[in-house]
C-alpha cells in the first residue's frame, strides 16, 4: 500500500454522471481524459448495459447529449466496495474479475453513485484510501477507530489491498490486540483469505509471526482454528513448520521461538477445549514436558496432550494407578468410619459389585439411587398404612 497512486495532474476532476438517455444498444464503455485551463474532467460515456432499459426505443440512437449534462463534478469519495463478477472464457473456463468501486458524492447534489476505481482521479482515491491503510500498517488503533466512527464517510472493514489483504491481516501481523478487537466489532471477516502470498488468514499471519495476544484476540472474535491456507496448513501446522526452521540455542531467535510457542499454546487451548477425555492411558516426559495419551469419550483416536490441558482429577487417578470402569447403577449404601458414605456399584463390564467412596462416583448415579430409595420408602409406608387399616377394620 506504500504505492497508493497519487497523480497531481488529475486533481479534483469532473466525472460524468449516468444519463438514462443514452441508448442501451451500445455496449462499449469509453473513458476519455481531457485537459481544461482551470480544471480537469473525466468523461465516462456509459450506456449502462448493466441495467434494464428505462426508456426503451423512445430515444433516438443518434440523439446527441449536451456536454454540460454528461458531466458531474466530484466532491469526495464517501464509500468503497469490492465487486466480484464471473468472467467466461472461450474454452468454457470461468475466472473471477475483482474490481474496486467508490461511492461518489457529487458537488451538484445528485444522488451519490458507484464509479469504478479506474474512472476516478488518483489523488481523489488517495485522499480516501491513504488514511485507512496508513492506520492499518501502523496498527494505529485510535486512527482506525476514528475512521470507522465517521458517519459522513462509509468505511468497509474488509477493504482489500491489491494482494487481497485487509487491515485485519496487518493488525494480526503486528500483534495489535486492540486493532483486532476494533475491526472485529466493526464487522471485519476474521477468516478472510488473502489472494496473494500463501492464501493466509489473519490467524495464520498472527500465528506465523508468533503473536500470541493477536492469536487469542482473533480466536475470541470467532476465527476458525482449523481453517487451512493455500498450502493446506492450519495455523498450528504453520507454527510447527516455522519452529522447525527457527534455530534453537540462538540468542537472536530466542524471542521469536518464545512468541511462536506462546501462539501455539493459545491454539492448543482451543483444539482441546471441547474434547471430553474418558481416561488417561499413558504418560511420558517430565515437568513442563509431561504429556498424557488420552482416550476421548466420543471415541476419537487417542492423542498425546500436554499435561496442563488434562483435568487434574484424571491426571491424579492415572498417577495413583486407579482403574476406570463403567457403572450401570448404584444398588446399595452404607456408612463407614467418620460418617462417610460408600455405595455398592453394579458395573457394566464386571460381574462383581464393589463398594466405592462417594467421590469416585458420578453424582447423577447417586441421585438416581436416592430417588429410587425415596420412592420405595413411600411405597412401603403406604402399604404398611393400608395393612394397619385392614387390621383395625
From TrEMBL:
UniProt-listed Pfam families: Ank, Ank_2, Chromo
Keywords, sorted A to Z: ANK repeat, Repeat
Start-end of each ANK repeat: 163-195, 198-230
Chromo domain mapped to chain residues: 325-381
Protein name in UniProt: Chromo domain containing protein
Ranges for region Disordered: 369-393
Annotated SMART domains: ANK (SM00248), CHROMO (SM00298)
Lineage: Eukaryota, Viridiplantae, Streptophyta, Embryophyta, Tracheophyta
Biased composition (Basic and acidic residues): 369-382
InterPro entries: Ankyrin_rpt, Ankyrin_rpt-contain_sf, Chromo-like_dom_sf, Chromo/chromo_shadow_dom, Chromo_domain, CPSRP43_chromodomain_3
Amino acid at each position: 500500500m506504500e504505492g497508493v497512486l497519487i497523480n497531481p495532474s488529475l486533481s479534483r476532476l469532473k466525472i460524468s454522471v449516468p444519463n438514462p438517455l443514452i441508448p442501451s444498444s451500445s455496449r462499449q464503455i469509453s473513458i476519455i481524459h481531457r485537459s481544461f485551463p482551470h480544471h480537469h474532467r473525466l468523461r465516462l460515456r456509459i450506456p449502462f448495459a448493466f441495467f434494464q432499459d428505462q426508456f426503451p426505443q423512445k430515444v433516438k440512437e443518434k440523439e446527441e447529449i449536451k456536454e454540460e449534462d454528461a458531466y458531474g463534478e466530484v466532491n469526495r469519495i464517501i464509500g468503497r466496495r469490492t465487486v466480484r463478477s464471473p468472467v467466461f472464457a472461450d474454452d468454457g473456463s470461468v475466472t473471477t474479475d475483482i474490481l474496486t468501486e467508490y461511492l461518489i458524492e457529487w458537488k451538484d447534489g445528485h444522488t451519490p453513485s458507484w464509479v469504478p476505481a479506474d474512472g476516478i482521479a488518483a489523488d481523489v482515491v488517495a485522499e480516501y484510501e491513504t488514511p485507512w491503510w496508513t492506520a492499518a500498517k501502523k496498527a494505529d488503533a485510535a486512527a482506525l477507530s476514528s475512521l470507522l466512527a465517521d458517519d459522513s464517510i462509509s468505511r468497509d472493514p474488509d477493504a482489500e489491498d491489491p494482494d487481497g489483504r485487509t487491515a485485519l491481516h496487518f493488525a494480526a501481523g503486528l500483534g495489535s490486540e486492540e486493532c483486532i478487537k476494533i475491526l472485529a466489532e466493526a464487522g471485519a471477516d476474521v477468516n478472510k483469505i488473502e489472494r496473494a502470498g500463501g492464501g493466509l488468514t489473519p490467524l495464520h499471519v498472527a500465528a506465523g509471526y508468533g503473536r500470541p495476544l493477536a492469536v487469542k484476540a482473533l480466536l475470541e472474535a470467532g476465527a476458525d482454528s482449523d481453517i487451512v491456507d493455500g498450502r493446506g496448513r492450519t495455523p498450528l501446522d504453520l507454527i510447527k513448520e516455522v519452529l522447525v526452521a527457527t534455530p534453537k540455542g540462538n540468542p537472536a531467535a530466542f524471542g521469536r521461538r518464545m512468541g511462536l510457542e506462546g501462539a501455539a499454546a493459545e491454539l492448543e487451548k482451543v483444539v482441546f477445549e471441547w474434547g471430553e477425555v474418558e481416561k488417561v492411558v499413558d504418560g511420558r516426559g517430565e515437568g513442563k514436558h509431561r504429556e498424557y495419551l488420552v482416550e476421548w469419550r466420543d471415541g476419537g483416536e487417542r492423542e498425546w496432550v500436554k499435561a496442563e490441558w488434562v483435568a487434574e482429577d484424571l491426571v491424579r487417578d492415572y498417577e495413583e494407578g486407579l482403574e476406570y470402569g463403567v457403572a450401570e447403577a448404584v444398588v446399595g449404601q452404607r456408612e463407614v468410619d467418620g460418617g462417610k458414605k460408600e455405595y455398592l456399584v453394579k458395573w457394566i463390564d464386571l460381574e462383581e459389585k464393589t463398594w466405592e467412596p462417594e467421590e469416585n462416583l458420578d453424582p447423577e448415579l447417586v441421585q438416581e439411587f436416592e430417588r429410587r430409595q425415596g420412592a420405595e420408602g413411600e411405597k412401603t409406608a403406604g402399604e404398611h398404612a393400608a395393612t394397619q387399616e385392614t387390621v383395625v377394620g
